Amino acid sequence: MNIQVVHNYEQLCEMAAYIVASQIITDPNSVIGTASGSTVLGVYNGLVELYEAGHVDFSKVKLFNLDEFYGLDKHHEQSRYNLIKANLVDRINMPLENFNLPCGTAEEVFPECKRYEKLIDHTGGIDLQLLGIGVNGHIGFNEPSDYFAPYTYLVELSESTRSSNVSFFGHISEVPTKAYSVGIGTIMRAGNILLIAEGEDKAWAIKEMIQKRVTPQIPASILQFHDNVTVLIDEAAASML
Ligand code: GLP
After folding, report:
1. What separation in Å is there between the alpha carbon of 93 and the centre of ligand 1?
2. How many domains does the chain fold into?
3. Does the pLDDT value for residue 126 go beyond 90?
4. Is 138 one of the catalytic residues?
5. How far apart are CA 105 and CA 14, in angstroms?
6. Is 38 close to ligand 1, i.e. is its CB under 6 Å away?
7. Which CATH number is 166's domain given?
8. Mean pLDDT of the chain
9. What is the pLDDT of residues 60-73, one digit of tens each?
10. 32-53 pLDDT, tens per residue?
11. Atom 1, ligand 1: which residue's CA is nearest?
């Protein structure tokens, strides 16, 4: 793992945006895996700035988001679709049809998981996967578990993840109990991975991910087995290393 510690969130977003942009500049047909949550939003702002300055062309890029809440229509205010669309897709020159997510309201779960996984496969796989991390060490919505999920699947969300989402939904009862997520296997098949984290509340998960044994109880720890991972964190998130 390539670990980079920066002073603050602003620097972190700027550097992460440069890394994603350089992937796209090197290969304009890049397939990028996007993440949701609040940490990545600053990176999307950074990418929009680079686009507006004329440094990056998104016209041939394809995006695959890591996850979507189960049962939420894509037009729901808190859908992952809406979040990434409003913060990134609507602000760059990428055609909307190049933006992919699992469908939260698909009629049947298993065919939807298969459809998404196949779609990723048909594009040739993810070139660069952007990841945040949950306070419990989750990536995507791969919660602590006794196995590493190989493919896209439907996940029962943990109480800690649902609580972290209360600020978006207003009340815990409004936070969905399940979500579609690409599997750990899907993430591990990406060519390059960029994981970002800020703040003291992520310090424990970062330590477990980097310095402890690989276990599905800390899903992010599997990244120790990937050859091309960059971990970009601020000083607070690095404070337990
Ligand atoms: C959600 C997302 C993850 C994200 C995590 C951290 O659970 N499914 O992809 O990494 O939140 O979010 P935040 O950046 O808001 O702490």
Report:
1. 25
2. 1
3. yes
4. yes
5. 35
6. yes
7. 3.40.50.1360
8. 96
9. 999 999 999 999 99
10. 999 998 999 999 999 999 999 9
11. 37
